[in-house]
Every structure is written in C-alpha cells, then in structure tokens.
Amino acid sequence: MAKKIQLAVVGLGGITRTFINACRSALADEVSIIGAYSSSFERAKLFSEEFNFPYYGLYEDVLTNKQIDAVYVGNNSADHYKTAKLYLSHKIPVLLEKPLTLKYEEAVDLVRIAQENQVLFMEAMKFTFYDGFNDLLKRLENQQYGPIKYLDSLFYTNKSGNRETRHWKKELGGGSLYDLGCYQLAYYVKLYQEPDNIVVNSFEVINEVEVRIDYTLFKNGVPARLSTSFLGSPTGAHYQQFNIHTDDYYINSDNFSQGKSFKVYDHQGRLTYETTPINKPDMAYEIKHFCDLLRTKQIQSNINTFSFSLSIIKIIDRILREIKLL
Ligand SMILES: NC(=O)c1ccc[n+]([C@@H]2O[C@H](COP(=O)([O-])OP(=O)(O)OC[C@H]3O[C@@H](n4cnc5c(N)ncnc54)[C@H](OP(=O)(O)O)[C@@H]3O)[C@@H](O)[C@H]2O)c1
C-alpha cells in the first residue's frame, strides 16, 4: 500500500470540519491528519479535543514539523493569500479553499511562488472532479446538444439572521461573489475560460461588502446572466439554479454548487439525461486527486489548473473594480 499522506489542517472553522470528516470517512487508508493549526490556541485546543490530534495556536508552527507532507488551508478568505504564501515559499504543498485570494494579482503571485519553488498548489473546488460534471462538460464541448444560446444562474442564500459572520465582514473577505459567485464562475470558466465583456446590471453594498450582485458575461455574443445574494430569495432562504439553453435542449441543476444532478430536457420537456450522483463525501474526490498529485510530484492539477483558478479570480476582480470595491 502507498505511504499515507500526512496532512495538516489550517484554519479551524466549518469547512475544515467537513474536510476532516471526508478524510476520515472516505480516505482513511490514504491520508492522516497530523496537526490542527489555528490563529487561536484556545480554538485549536477545543477543535482538537473533538477530533483528537495535536494542535497549535500559530500557523507558523507548521514550518517546524518536518513530518507534514502538505497543508489544507480553510481559513477566512481574506487570509488565504498570506497563509498560502507562507507555506508555498517554504516549499510546503498547499490545497487552498476558494476563493483563491481576494485580488487577481495575489493569485498570480501565489502561482509564481509555487512555480519558482516547484511545489504543489491547488484550489479546493470540488465538483470539477465529479464524473457527472465532466461527462456533462464533454457532451457540451462535443456539441451534443447544439451551441449554447445563453446561460443563467441564481445563487441566493439568506445570511441575514446573523450579520456577524465572515460573509458580511470586509476584513474577513466577505461578499457574495467571493462566497457564492465562485461556483457559478467555475462552470463559466470551464465552458468559456474568460468573457470578452462584463456588464454589471445591479448590486447592493452593506458596510463596504457586496451582498448582492447581478451581472452578465459575454463571450462571442453568448450571454451568461449570473446573480448571487446573501439577502434570501422570493421563494425562501436558499435557492440555486444553473440553466444552460440551446435551441433544442434545456439543461438545469438546482444544486449546481454541489455539482450534483444536472438534468437535460428536450424541447418537449422530456428528461433525456441525468448526471450520475457521487457516492463518496463531496470533498473526498478533490482530496484524493491532491494526494495523487503529491505522490507523483506534480506542482499543478490537470483539472483545477492554475489557469482555471486564475480566470475565476480575474473575473471577480474585474467586477469588484467595476463597482469600486477594489
Ligand atoms: N469549498 C467549499 O465547498 C467551501 C464551503 C464553505 C466555505 N468555503 C471556504 O472556506 C473558507 C472558510 O469558510 P468557513 O465556512 O469554514 O468559515 P468559518 O466557519 O467562519 O471559519 C473561518 C475561519 O475563522 C476562524 N474561526 C472559526 N471559528 C471562529 C470563531 N468562533 N471566532 C472567530 N474565528 C473563528 C478559523 O480560523 P482560525 O482557526 O485560524 O482562527 C476558521 O478557519 C472560506 O474561504 C470559504 O470561502 C469553501
């Protein structure tokens, strides 16, 4: 059996819990988590009592543990750049949560550091690894449903109940594009790489944080109208749709951020195809891929490539500059 990859987790919040659970339930033969690192010693202690591994109250403590093969960084988005930079510049491979960084130039810098240090660096965007997603992408690329006429997608959640969370705070990297828009843009970038033009239709800002935005991306005249919001939806607290329209087909998912259940309907409304569901915890696929890249000494994923991740943050950066939030 291949040697287990020894990982450290950095930033001990909700998504890191999901990450640890995925490792433990689906990748126990593949991965060991050998340390939990937080900006707060108390939080590290509490968290590690729950999961039972060594804990540390400084991100820098990773640098002195030579047993660590790589780190998973799941801290606040505003801290992604400096945290990933710390590890990559010490040649420690990094799996970094989305959004990669808050600014395009920071993401470019991380890629440069990874390349100069010949060290693995990948964004933790999970659904790009699912068979269903890749099968649908292939069908679209092969023009099985004809050319795309337009795309539209809404991703609304109601985060108004507690405005003390990271979503609302500029200093923590809040904003609906960073939090929700990343997922829509991941699809967009896989289909089109980058738009020729961007038009912002409307947006709302609270305390310097963009909490709702509606914009259209154009590529060769094909529009993609995308909206995100923290302010809820007319139909309830949480609502998401991703729709792809061709002359003869309508392709839809109401759970696209999880990369699940895309359905293809013909012009008479008959269901003609449905993507296969995943059968492991959703983060397990990206973690397995990351471990394989480590074992084969790659510095870049062939799925979540540098170019893929850079394009996503480049589009976000362009939009936020347009509305004067960057
Ligand atoms: N890929 C995905 O599906 C997915 C899903 C959700 C989130 N994310 C991304 O993951 C990152 C973290 O999101 P999250 O939902 O895990 O956020 P979160 O629960 O608010 O945690 C964010 C960070 O805040 C610190 N923290 C945790 N509890 C805290 C508390 N009680 N008081 C103060 N600080 C606390 C932790 O860092 P320290 O321990 O170092 O202080 C933690 O890493 C974001 O960049 C987000 O975009 C990705």
pLDDT average, as an integer?
95
Structural class: alpha/beta
Q: Between the first and last Cα atoms, what is the distance in angstroms?
A: 49 Å
**Uncertain segments of ≥5 residues (pLDDT<50)?**
none
Major beta sheet, strand line-up: 8-9-10-7-11-12-13-14
Architecture of the largest domain, CATH level 2? 2-Layer Sandwich
State the CATH topology of the largest domain.
Dihydrodipicolinate Reductase, domain 2
**According to CATH, what is the class of the largest domain?**
Alpha Beta
Number of domains: 2
**Tally of separate helices:** 8
Q: What composes the largest sheet?
A: 8 strands, mixed
Beta-strand percent range: 25-35%
Please estimate the helix content. Answer: 25-40%
Q: Which kinds of small molecule does this entry bind, naming each only once?
A: NADP nicotinamide-adenine-dinucleotide phosphate
Succession of helices and strands: EHEHEEHEHEHEHEEEEEEEHH
Radius of gyration (Å): 20 Å
**Large-scale geometry:** globular
CATH superfamily of the largest domain: Dihydrodipicolinate Reductase, domain 2
The total strand number stands at: 14
Features:
alpha/beta; binds NADP nicotinamide-adenine-dinucleotide phosphate; Rossmann fold; 14 strands; Dihydrodipicolinate Reductase, domain 2; 326 residues
Structure described in brief:
The chain is an alpha/beta fold and 326 residues long. It is built from eight helices and 14 strands. The longest helix is centred in the middle third of the chain and has 17 residues.
